[in-house]
Amino acid sequence: MPRRTDIESVLVIGSGPIVIGQACEFDYSGTQACRVLREEGFRVVLVNSNPATIMTDPEFADATYVEPITPEYVEKVIEKERPNALLATLGGQTALNAAIALHDNGVLEKYGVELIGASVDAIQRGENRQSFKQIVEKLGAEVARSRICHTLDDVFGAAAELGYPLVVRPSFTMGGVGSGMAYDEADLRRIAGAGLQASPTTEVLIEESILGWKEYELEVMRDKADNVVIICSIENVDPMGVHTGDSVTVAPAMTLTDREYQVMRDLAIGIIREVGVDTGGCNIQFAVNPADGRLIVIEMNPRVSRSSALASKATGFPIAKIAAKVAIGYTLDEIPNDITRQTPASFEPTLDYVVVKVPRFAFEKFPAADATLTTHMKSVGEAMAIGRNYTEALQKALRSLEKPEARFSWASRPATELEPLLEAIKTPHDGRLRTIMDAIRAGATPEQVFDATKIDPWFVDQLYLIHEIALQTAAAPRLTPEVLRLAKRHGFSDLQLAEIRGLTEDVVRGVRQALGIRPVYKTVDTCAAEFKAETPYHYSSYDEETEVAPRTEPAVLILGSGPNRIGQGIEFDYSCVHASMALREAGYCTVMVNCNPETVSTDYDTSDRLYFEPLTCEDVLEIVYAEMQAGPVAGVIVQLGGQTPLGLAQRLADAGVPIVGTSPEAIHLAEERGAFGKVLADAALPAPKHGTAMSADEAREVAEEIGFPVLVRPSYVLGGRGMEIVYSEAELTAALGRLSGGTGSWEHPVLIDRFLDDAVEIDVDGLFDGDELFLGGVMEHIEEAGVHSGDSSCALPPITLGNADIEKIRQSTEAIARGVGVRGLLNVQYALAGDVLYVLEANPRASRTVPFVSKATATPLAKAAARVMLGATIASLRDEGMLPAEGDGGTLPTSTPIAVKEAVMPFNRFRTVDGRSVDTVLGPEMRSTGEVMGIDDTFGTAFAKSQAGASQPLPGAGKVFVSVANRDKRHMIFPVKRLADLGFEIYATDGTADVLRRNGVEAITVRKNSQGPGPNGEPTIVQMVHDGELDLIVNTPIGITQGGSPRLDGYEIRSAAVARNIPCITTVQGLAAAVQGIEAQRAGDIGVRSLQDWVPRIRGV
Amino acid sequence: MSQTAHNPALLVLEDGRAFTGTSYGATGETFGEAVFTTGMTGYQETLTDPSYHRQIVTQTAPHIGNTGVNDEDDESQRIWVAGYVVRDPARVPSNWRATRSLDDQLKGQGIVGIAGIDTRALTRHLRERGAMRAGISTEILDPAALLEKVLQQPPMVGADLASEVTTFEPYVIPAEGEKRFTVVALDLGIKSMTPKRMAERGIEVHVLPATATLEEVLAVNPDGIFMSNGPGDPETTEHPTDLLKALLQRGKPYFGICFGNQVFGRALGLGTFKLKYGHRGINQPVLDRATGKVEITAQNHGFAVDAPIGETVETEYGTAEVSHVSLNDNVVEGLKLTGQDGRVLAFSVQYHPEAAAGPHDSAYLFDRFVELMEGRA
């Protein structure tokens, strides 16, 4: 059966901004889907508010709408584009929820749009717990005993019946939002209360606990001829009780007999049929009681999920691509397996290797958050590794996390006390495997480890195996080939071996290489070598035979950005993928190195070769060596993947690896304060007064000289990690204590800068070829300086800067590019204060804003950068048409639309230990997980779109609460007055209300939280927020300090706002922007327009 | 137990390629045809499958033995593989049903194995060069010396092995529930799940030795005839082929699996041939040519039937055609014989609907056998 001919155009909905629980895996799946649909000749219409995605590149769809994924906006797109079909199963829960809303409100029917992939009925059967339970029971299987509840009374009734502990799961939320484990009535009241709130249907499931059971997932695919195949089995090392997104997981399942596996397989097939997912993929989760094998079906996702991305990378079977093909009518046997080319997709991949995924958390960004792992997902990213056995894969995965404390270490003496370690491993936490290893080192028995963790004894034994090899390596008289080879086969890095032997990593590497012990590269081929693989998707292993093919065309290695984390995510993957595309086209053999399974870069289709490997110096050096054996290597690109590859640059160069683009010396010049200061001085560019310090005393001296407030931060970090603004010496001392972890000293110098109050912050992305500067884009931050640029919203073109300012920015940027010696991309941050343009910092690499700038200016910056790094000039790229023939991002015509980038914060994912929200104040340390873009003719509409896209839509009317710090009172008067004029009711606390009244704005005084309820029961502001009485909250904090420490009323108000999802503005500039957005919304219908349609306006044609 | 404490072992292929690893299971030496199987689960079933008789089986899945060995999953009374090649054997078994470790089981049954070698390199070699004779030794560690012994071994082509794996005495597996049919199952290397699948459907299964005569078969007065899987070259199966011809002449409904498919092919006058490296795994896609549906099947065969796909072949028993084909390489995976009225008279498949180990997609074939005996097919 060939593809359907009765539909011509398909609307694809993406997943919007990156949030915890829904990350760039949906860019990977959506990009695959768009590619397939276009190849098949459909007109593809795409809606996705996330500009950092590959899928929103104009070349992946016929009409790309970077618009909010809300029913209102998607309806506008449907009205304009009139697609025949809607594919919503590849955009995560966001797309699925939007599709259901458009079905429920009749829009799909009105415009005759057919939902393909999964019907609304199937989605509801799969996601509604009651109907799902009936389906499972009909198939003769069990679900956990449970009750559906709609009120807290129901909940307590269920608890009486089922007994504690209980699991609470809200319906229709993603990533387990609002779910949790309740051990007593207080827990239950808190978790179920929040869960009812989080569920769009005010529905929670109260379920018997199957804590400690083994947990599995199957990825299932079905076509319209009812062929069903299992793509992958995944086993969680962490047993039930930890969200699968936060678990260490393994593929294929390691501890199942065939009989047990086949029972699961039969059920999975039965379930996808009964639920009625006609075409496409879904995943089904199971729990198994280790004592007697009792099997329970946990849940299904009737769509492509995070696990699907993992399964695709783990097996080489591209689930999203195949799901798109079956959605448009193909059957599985008609689709060739890309990797073997000779065999069809209607088969079940079989693995001759082991895949381990480990989560990456960001608790360091939210010190107040409860770091216990629960059924509510908290990780922000993940790394995957492939090895020929579990130990190899596990140790590779742990070092892929780039957290030194994540990997196993035998450097220190074993702990003398076992009990605290055994106690610690009872609670799932980030790094628990390391804690278990420490317990093993301290003498724990396998039984003790199992009793404390319920981790399957086979996995526990593998940890003992690793430990025994470490001990053997330590005890060996010499590092013989046998000793090294054995350790390497179980995944030990040169660094770990160096620690064990008391040597340096370089010495271990030297010995190892001299002995000829190097990894070989095997191929992920879907079929365990039964058929020849045509796709060079490789992983390393210390085995015998390598499969890297020789080649003649010059190779360029592109180092990716590793696991997603706050500050380094999809934006860097975007640049890497673009480099690969551009260099492939230019005739290079592109070789991608990355370990993040969620990304487009690790799609085996993206580059000529893919190495799914950790981004450590050792692993990269070995790949370079293998590729040098295979043919000529033109160079390695380190400037596109963020800080991870940049941090490797010098060591790679020292080892003789050719780095293309900006040299490691130049990178150092920009990173190192003193050297950079000289560059600025030579070019006569002002910078805020600054200094560096290696000790606390030195830091105090520097701060004294510069004058408070100062910005304190460590060097060589991304995302403002550890950055704080301090207003006094006492605050400085506290901040330094946090930075040094109490030790009082640092490996790299601490940077101290004068903090410019009230400055306009400007972000610039430029491209420099050694001679000419191409100013990519100039972004004006909406929040004042002091909010991390990644968390700040910004506008492009800049909304208040004049031509003279831009000219100054151009000259400064060029001077810095020249002075540093940039070849490729450069990001500079400026602060404009009192007509002086201060240089805050310069980064000679791709920045987080490259994709946003590329989309807002219709210029493929990262592609051009890759070409420049390999020797092309800006002039030649203009001739080629890759860059505009004339002008650049600094000379955009007045017809250019305004693009607003807004950050999306993860505050709703975290709770403090006592169950309250963490503080939401923005500061110099980046904490956002994702971003959205709003684009329109004027700033107001673009800003309104950006807020809607970030799930914080501005209200059109209603009640506004205003409470601002003294220093903001003057600036808030005009915007608040405007809101009052627009008909908003203004509420304020004493001080703010007085100021407003004196300025002619009627404001109703509300009681502070600290005042408590009034004598006649007047509620406090916090109660009002909790009761959902307010539509907008404006609350600027008193001083900006590190997030996390509760600050009285402000904190209570803001965290209540998070809990109720009420828009909460924490800067006065944000308020002004919001007022413009509200005015734009009220002015009338906001339209939608595709990126392709904006191009003539950007080009000024 | 440390990984280095094991004794060395050597694997040598008849073309001289050698792999050095560590001893696994029993020590000593063993010879057989080197093949690989790609199933990620079901090593216990694989080891006890008589079709692997005289074969040195390589598991492409690296971790073997994780779930130990239990009392329920054996497919016959003993381990049949001649030798066992794995990469990373489990040190401790972990499963609620496990009663002992695989290592102990192999030792107990004297199965010589090798661990720690690059099984993927071996698999790729066999894929490119074809299945071939091989030897594993923990005693001869010189490749040239072991190669000499390998070359003295008989090849698989021309090997008549059914007599070595078949039951000596007939036995009966009673029907579960109400008995509806009696079937004679000729044991050419039958797996225990096969009569069980029939018994579940009300069939009383009389398992007869491979040497059973026509008279002995007819004496059971069967409603249908079944021939099982088994090892060896189908060209050597004169007796079962002649027996099946005689039974087809008598109009007995027939169902064959694996070797039983090849015997059926030969009875219909079709040829058989040795595949380069065979089909061994539990993920093999097969197309049912009648319905267009795909089944994921368990397979274990080194030989295949040579028959024209998409054409019919007239035989003295009726019209024969290929009913199933492999989607991977178009190898014949099933045969069907129909009478003049279009009714199915007999059928067989090259793969394993009894599926132990493997997926249950093809279990419907046992229902089809019931329908055949009911005269409904």
From TrEMBL, chain A:
<feature type="binding site">
    <location>
        <position position="285"/>
    </location>
    <ligand>
        <name>ATP 1</name>
    </ligand>
</feature>
<keyword id="KW-0665">Pyrimidine biosynthesis</keyword>
<comment type="subunit">
    <text>Composed of two chains; the small (or glutamine) chain promotes the hydrolysis of glutamine to ammonia, which is used by the large (or ammonia) chain to synthesize carbamoyl phosphate. Tetramer of heterodimers (alpha,beta)4.</text>
</comment>
<dbReference type="Pfam" id="PF25596">
    <property type="entry name" value="CPSase_L_D1"/>
</dbReference>
<feature type="binding site">
    <location>
        <position position="285"/>
    </location>
    <ligand>
        <name>Mn(2+) 1</name>
    </ligand>
</feature>
<dbReference type="InterPro" id="IPR005483">
    <property type="entry name" value="CPSase_dom"/>
</dbReference>
<feature type="binding site">
    <location>
        <position position="241"/>
    </location>
    <ligand>
        <name>ATP 1</name>
    </ligand>
</feature>
<feature type="binding site">
    <location>
        <position position="756"/>
    </location>
    <ligand>
        <name>ATP 2</name>
    </ligand>
</feature>
<feature type="region of interest" description="Allosteric domain">
    <location>
        <begin position="952"/>
        <end position="1101"/>
    </location>
</feature>
<dbReference type="GO" id="GO:0046872">
    <property type="term" value="F:metal ion binding"/>
</dbReference>
<feature type="domain" description="MGS-like">
    <location>
        <begin position="952"/>
        <end position="1101"/>
    </location>
</feature>
<feature type="binding site">
    <location>
        <position position="285"/>
    </location>
    <ligand>
        <name>Mg(2+) 1</name>
    </ligand>
</feature>
<dbReference type="InterPro" id="IPR005479">
    <property type="entry name" value="CPAse_ATP-bd"/>
</dbReference>
<dbReference type="InterPro" id="IPR036897">
    <property type="entry name" value="CarbamoylP_synth_lsu_oligo_sf"/>
</dbReference>
<feature type="binding site">
    <location>
        <position position="789"/>
    </location>
    <ligand>
        <name>ATP 2</name>
    </ligand>
</feature>
<dbReference type="InterPro" id="IPR058047">
    <property type="entry name" value="CPSase_preATP-grasp"/>
</dbReference>
<protein>
    <recommendedName>
        <fullName>Carbamoyl phosphate synthase large chain</fullName>
        <ecNumber>6.3.4.16</ecNumber>
        <ecNumber>6.3.5.5</ecNumber>
    </recommendedName>
</protein>
<feature type="binding site">
    <location>
        <position position="215"/>
    </location>
    <ligand>
        <name>ATP 1</name>
    </ligand>
</feature>
<comment type="similarity">
    <text>Belongs to the CarB family.</text>
</comment>
<feature type="binding site">
    <location>
        <position position="176"/>
    </location>
    <ligand>
        <name>ATP 1</name>
    </ligand>
</feature>
<dbReference type="InterPro" id="IPR005480">
    <property type="entry name" value="CPSase_lsu_oligo"/>
</dbReference>
<feature type="binding site">
    <location>
        <position position="841"/>
    </location>
    <ligand>
        <name>Mg(2+) 3</name>
    </ligand>
</feature>
From TrEMBL, chain B:
<feature type="active site">
    <location>
        <position position="352"/>
    </location>
</feature>
<protein>
    <recommendedName>
        <fullName>Carbamoyl phosphate synthase small chain</fullName>
        <ecNumber>6.3.5.5</ecNumber>
    </recommendedName>
</protein>
<keyword id="KW-0665">Pyrimidine biosynthesis</keyword>
<dbReference type="GO" id="GO:0006526">
    <property type="term" value="P:L-arginine biosynthetic process"/>
</dbReference>
<dbReference type="GO" id="GO:0006541">
    <property type="term" value="P:glutamine metabolic process"/>
</dbReference>
<feature type="binding site">
    <location>
        <position position="51"/>
    </location>
    <ligand>
        <name>L-glutamine</name>
    </ligand>
</feature>
<comment type="pathway">
    <text>Pyrimidine metabolism; UMP biosynthesis via de novo pathway; (S)-dihydroorotate from bicarbonate: step 1/3.</text>
</comment>
<keyword id="KW-0547">Nucleotide-binding</keyword>
<dbReference type="InterPro" id="IPR035686">
    <property type="entry name" value="CPSase_GATase1"/>
</dbReference>
<dbReference type="InterPro" id="IPR002474">
    <property type="entry name" value="CarbamoylP_synth_ssu_N"/>
</dbReference>
<comment type="subunit">
    <text>Composed of two chains; the small (or glutamine) chain promotes the hydrolysis of glutamine to ammonia, which is used by the large (or ammonia) chain to synthesize carbamoyl phosphate. Tetramer of heterodimers (alpha,beta)4.</text>
</comment>
<feature type="binding site">
    <location>
        <position position="232"/>
    </location>
    <ligand>
        <name>L-glutamine</name>
    </ligand>
</feature>
<feature type="binding site">
    <location>
        <position position="300"/>
    </location>
    <ligand>
        <name>L-glutamine</name>
    </ligand>
</feature>
<comment type="similarity">
    <text>Belongs to the CarA family.</text>
</comment>
<feature type="binding site">
    <location>
        <position position="259"/>
    </location>
    <ligand>
        <name>L-glutamine</name>
    </ligand>
</feature>
<dbReference type="GO" id="GO:0004088">
    <property type="term" value="F:carbamoyl-phosphate synthase (glutamine-hydrolyzing) activity"/>
</dbReference>
<keyword id="KW-0028">Amino-acid biosynthesis</keyword>
<feature type="region of interest" description="CPSase">
    <location>
        <begin position="1"/>
        <end position="181"/>
    </location>
</feature>
<dbReference type="GO" id="GO:0044205">
    <property type="term" value="P:'de novo' UMP biosynthetic process"/>
</dbReference>
<dbReference type="InterPro" id="IPR050472">
    <property type="entry name" value="Anth_synth/Amidotransfase"/>
</dbReference>
<keyword id="KW-0055">Arginine biosynthesis</keyword>
<dbReference type="InterPro" id="IPR029062">
    <property type="entry name" value="Class_I_gatase-like"/>
</dbReference>
